[in-house]
Amino acid sequence: MQHPLSLYNTLTRRKDAFQPLHAPFVGVYLCGPTVYSEAHIGNARGPVVFDVLTRYLRYLGYTVRYVRNITDVGHLESDADEGEDKISRMARARQLEPMQVAEQFANLYHRHMEVLGCLPPDIEPRASGHITEQIQLIQEIIDNGFGYEAGGSVYFDVPAYNAAGRGYGKLSNRVVEELLAGSRDNLAGQEEKRSPLDFALWKKADARHLMRWPSPWGEGFPGWHLECSAMSRKYLGAEFDIHGGGLDLMFPHHECEIAQSQASHSHSDEARVWMHNNMITVNGQKMSKSLGNFVTISDLFRGGSSILTQPYSPMTARFFLLQAHYRSTVDVSDEAMQAARKGYRKLMNGLRVLDKLVLPEGTERTADTAAADAELRKLTQDCFAGLNDDLNTARCVASLFNLLRKFNGYAANLATLAQLSEAALTEATTTYRALVEEVLGLQDEPRANVEDLLTLTLGFYQEAKTAKDYGKVDAIRAALKEQGIVVKDTKAGVDWAYSEE
RNA sequence: GGUGACGUGACCGAGUGGCUAGGUAGAGGUCUGCAAAACCUCCUACAGCGGUUCGAAUCCGCUCGUCACCUCCA
C-alpha cells in the first residue's frame, strides 16, 4: 500500500507521511456535536473534512473504522452557573425529557449530515451510553495519582501530572506556569480545586440537575472531556491513528483528552496524528454561537438569514467548504456561495461529459499518442498531488477543473480524441468520476422539477393530438409509460396519473 | 498580558525561492435562429519598508492591519 499521503500533525507541528499503526486498518475519531441546539454551518466543516479524509483513506485501500461521538451529556454551560449542563437547561426550558432534546437534535443532525453527503460514521457512540466506561477511566486516573475527589466531584490534578513530566500543554503549545499566571480565579467551584488548571472528571449533581448517574463519588455526571477519551479507547484502542476536531477544541478539550489518556492505564496520546480544521468566518470573524454571527444549516438550505440572503443547496455548501484547505479559515458570504454554486454545477456538468467522450466510428486513432497521453496523465496525477499534500482539497478541485477543461475540449470535437490512447482517456475519466463522487463526495443534485417537466410534455402531447399526429401521440404515451406515468385524456383536458401496474 | 495564525488581483481561494493554481465576476472572439453551455484570448496580485539571494508572494527583520486560543464553542 504505497502512497505519499502526508498529514499535518498538530502534536508535532509537522507534515508527515501517514503510517497506520496496524495497516491496512485505520482508526479515526472525530469530536462530534453536542446535541443541545441546532448545528450551524461552522459545525459542518469538521464532519465534511473528515468525511473526505475517511473516503480518501478507503479509496487508497485502507479499512477504516470511523468513530464520531454524540455528546448528549456533561458539557457545562459555564463554571459560573450552578453546574447545569446545556441539555438539562434546554430540557427544563422546553419542559422535555433531556433525552428527548438530545434525540431531536441528533436526528436533525443526521438528516443534515446525510444531505451534505457525509457518510455515517461506523460507530456513533453517545456519552450517556458510556457512563460506566467513563467512571472506570476516572478510577484509573485516581489510582495513578492524577485525580482527587473533593465534595462529591473528582478533578484532574494538572500540576501533579505535569510534575510527572507528562507535558500538560504539549498539544496546544502551552506552558503550565503561564497558564497559571493568566488564569482567572473568580470562578465558581474553584474552591474545590487544588489548582485553577485542574478540570472536572466528575461533577456532583445538585438537586436541580436533571441528568445524573450514580458513581463511587455520589450522584453526578461526567466532566467535559472524559467521554472522548473513554469512547475512543473503547472502540479504537488505547492508541489509534487519527483524532480530529475543530481548532477551537485544541485547548482545553483535546489537551485534557491527552492528559486523561496519559494518566489512565492507556498511557498514550490517544492518537498518533491530531488534526484540526480551521473555522468558518463571517467578515473575517469566527462564526460562533456566542457571537451570534451564525447561519444554522436549516437556514442555509432555506435562505433568508442576515448573513446569507439566498438559499444554497447542500452540495453547494459542501463544494464551498472543499474549495478551501481545511487548515485555513474560509469566509462565507453570498458572493462566495454564488461562486461556489456555479463551480459546483460546472463540476457536475463535467460528470455528464465523461460518457460522451467516445471516438466517433470510422475515425482512425493516431499512431503515436504519447504526447497527448502524457499531457492528460499529468493533469490526472495532479489531482492526487493536492489530496496527498495534507488533504488539500482546494488544489484537488483546481486540478479537476484543469482536467475538465481538457474533457470539454475533446467533447467539443470528438474527432480530436484520436490523439489519445484509450487507456489514458479511461484513466482520466475514471479518476475524475472517482474523485468527484467517491472521494470529494459531490453528487449530482437534480434541479429540474419533475412535475413541471411533465406539464411541459403534456403540452406537446396536446399539440400533437390537435394536429392529429398520432405517431407522436403514441410515442409520448409510451415514453411516459416507461417512467410509470399514464396520460389521461379527459373531457376537462389532458391529465396524468401514476401507473398502477 | 501569554501563545499562535494571517494579510494574494472585483470576490472567494491555492501556492514546496526561479516554471500562468483554480472558481466566480469583467472584456473580446469561436460556435449559434436566439440563448445557454463549451472552447480560445485578455485584464486587475502578492499590506508597507528594509535585508538575504543571480533570483522572493514564498526566507529574515521592522512597521501597519486583521484574526484565533487562553471561558462553552467545529
TrEMBL record:
Its Enzyme Commission number? 6.1.1.16
Q: Give the protein's cofactors.
A: Zn(2+)
Give the binding site residues for ATP. Answer: K289
Q: What InterPro entries does this protein map onto?
A: Cys-tRNA-ligase (IPR015803), Cys-tRNA-synt_Ia_DALR (IPR015273), Cys-tRNA/MSH_ligase (IPR024909), Rossmann-like_a/b/a_fold (IPR014729), tRNA-synt_1_cat_dom (IPR032678), tRNAsynth_Ia_anticodon-bd (IPR009080)
- Write down the SUPFAM superfamilies for this protein, in alphabetical order: Anticodon-binding domain of a subclass of class I aminoacyl-tRNA synthetases (SSF47323), Nucleotidylyl transferase (SSF52374)
GO molecular function list: ATP binding; cysteine-tRNA ligase activity; zinc ion binding
Q: Give UniProt keywords alphabetically.
A: Aminoacyl-tRNA synthetase, ATP-binding, Cytoplasm, Ligase, Metal-binding, Nucleotide-binding, Protein biosynthesis, Zinc
Question: Residue ranges of the Cysteinyl-tRNA synthetase class Ia DALR domain?
Answer: 382-450
The biological process GO terms on file are: cysteinyl-tRNA aminoacylation
Return the cofactor note field.
Binds 1 zinc ion per subunit.
Catalytic reaction equation(s): tRNA(Cys) + L-cysteine + ATP = L-cysteinyl-tRNA(Cys) + AMP + diphosphate
Q: Which domain of life is it from?
A: Bacteria
Q: In which residues does the motif 'HIGH' region occur?
A: 33-43
A GO-annotated cellular component: cytosol
Q: Tell me the compartments it is located in.
A: Cytoplasm
Kindly give the NCBIfam families that the UniProt entry links to this protein. cysS
Subunit structure as annotated in this protein's UniProt entry: Monomer.
Q: Which family, according to UniProt?
A: Belongs to the class-I aminoacyl-tRNA synthetase family.
Q: What is this protein called?
A: Cysteine--tRNA ligase
